[in-house]
Protein 1
Amino acid sequence: MKRILVACGNGVATSTVVATKVRKYLKEKGVQAETTQTRLIEVPGKVKNYDLLITTGQFEGQTGDIPIVRGMSLLTGIGADKTLEEVYEILK
């Protein structure tokens, strides 16, 4: 089971949209994943327990060796397919 941390400004609205799209896409690809939503400010203290960080806002903090995917395209729809493929390639 892959673990994904999805972060946005308040850890509620946009991260929920992104997490739902990512889980659905990965399920279709046969990848079991769970998502947790959080606020961007909380990422440094939480990210070490995850396989991937997806952000919908500007994040300049440290994640160690945890890869980061910029997820704004999953909200706008522009480039969403490319972003989802990037997530899949990291987690497969």
Protein 2
Amino acid sequence: MGSKMVGSGLGKIAGAVALAVCAPLTLGTTELQSNLESRVLASHNRERDLAGIPLLRWNESLATSARYWADHLGRINRLEHAPYDPSDRNPQGENLWAGTRGHYSAENMVEYWIQEKRHFRPGTFPQNSQTGRIEDVGHYTQVMWRNTREVGCALGQGAEFDILVCRYSSVGNVVGQKPF
């Protein structure tokens, strides 16, 4: 009986070790997609709350639009913004992120945009970058844009990377306006 207990104990340990070794391989997209809506929304709203800006609401229509574009980017295997349509009565703001597949959480992806805050200076858009390059703050200003009230995001995958696309309404980064 004692050897049975030892044997089954070793089996449990071996099973736990095998599970621990294989777990990173099985997490991938499933874990990244888990509670995506609430995780991405919370990441945006934490920063907005710190600045006293109204919190964003999730918009499923924006998420559907983001999903379409994230899938497209995965198929073409590169990152590029959706074409701008000047006749669109309800333009959407857009933030894009890409990184090595399976290495970043949804929170990390949004945090990448928020880290641009270090280059931000108050004022009128596009004079908001301490470096003089709007590319250094444009994601952050869209996350924080005072008139933006809704967001919808989706994940896609390229050959070797994860993609996050977030769409915003109303659009941010409007020339001549203050972000917040």
Protein 3
Amino acid sequence: MVFTSHAPIASRLNIIATGKALPEQIITSDELDRRLGKPAGYVERRSGILRRHHATHDASQAALAAAALHDACRRHAIEPASIDLLISASAIAVQALPCSAVHVMKAAGLPAGTAGFDVNSSCVSFITAMQVASALLTSGSYRRIAIVAADIASRGIDWQHEESSLIFGDGAACAIVEAGNGRAGILAMKSETYPQGSELCEIRAGGTRKNPRAGMDESDFLFHMQGKALFRQASALIDGFWQRLLEAAGLTLNDIATVVPHQASHLSLEHMRKRLKVRPEALVDIYRLHGNQVAASVPTALHEAFITGRVNPGEPVMLVGTAAGLTLAGMVLLP
């Protein structure tokens, strides 16, 4: 694709490295058929997934995040000590306090005194963190920032709720970014939240709302989703959001070389192909082999785009997704 006309760079940002990490344990849909007492092929038909990775019950989320960070550093010969800020962009925290970035930095062995904090907007946390990182890089506050998203979604699965229990996979991914040179950067970024849908996708415990003193039960720690209502709300909003993001970038969909979406479900990806008319060759779809990895979904798909040669200088890339809240977030990058 030859791309010669675009809006001015809104914020300087250049992705210099990506990496990912997956738990060793692979859970196939055939295995879930047997575990859940379903006919052969049932889980794959319902979920659209062939296999996903699930961490063991004693696995560390921080260690998984650190593995993704080190993978990015190894692939691109980056010294971890050269990172001066780590942003943890996970949907679920390691614990309530301190922030997850502290745990990731400790697991990764980053030097004491390195800055770190969390950014959380559920499944689109990585996109939000990229926005934050771009502002910090443009202002000169930091030189090199690692954004790491890691989620162990399997810990929160309610196996009694078929609609949501079949779609989740675990994983982590990292992007290391620096200020762009004036040619690479962000053309547009947009985030919109519609809190009327807050109860459609939630884990109620883990904060002050549900705890031993406020009252709670075991199911409050599990993932709850009203899938049909959530899909209706998201699908009613995404078309307009998509157009507003493209207009802000001064582009049309045909100008976008690669679309990196949140891998929410096979239905959401099919919606992009059919209703939003994303070209099949432009859409990065890793869902069948990863499932919905929550906040790790977008950066894992972005890493896939990089290693398969689908991110090239001067060719616009769109990151886009929906998340609990309901939040929509998107970004158009020029590598």
Protein 4
Amino acid sequence: MTGLLHLVRHGQTTANVAKILDTLPPGAPLTPDGSEQARRFAAERPGPAPAVLLSSVARRAQQTAGLIGTGWQMPVTVVDGVHEIQAGDLEGRSDEDAIKAFQQVVRSWHFGDLSAALPGGESASDLFERYLPTVEQVRRDHLADGDAYLVSHGAAIRLVAARLAGVDSGYAHRHHLPNTGEIVLRPTGTGWELVSWADAPSHLDPMG
């Protein structure tokens, strides 16, 4: 039986708490609560060890995956291409205008304008170009052996999962991911289908 792909958002960070747009690696570290979220994620998922545990290059993702890996007694492999979509000139800002500008561009991506981008930042097309090949490599290399867990980032995960599984754009835009929330996909034929999508209120965290 083919394994599932678990796209897991990292634990809470200092930037999440301060509502800072934090997209450029290495980025902010986990808070103590974020570390506990990662430990709890591992503890709440007993059973057969997954085929692989992966992380983006960002500090928060590596810390989250490391704590999960400690709980599961398995190594973490860092992979390129799956870091957060880049906010460009808005990086490091937390003011209302910046948050609104970022959220408006995210909305435009979900509703089909893949070329939209903030000044100095990435478009959804840029994200897909670097992220999707890594997902397909994970599928080829690991899912025949069991589940794969990839610790990544909220906005990127939602866009990628919606594209891969054909999720309704309105649903994907409204349903954000809490820290250590996951979207689970099942490979089917040459595509993917949605298994589950965790969600949380979106207005408090621009990077969800």
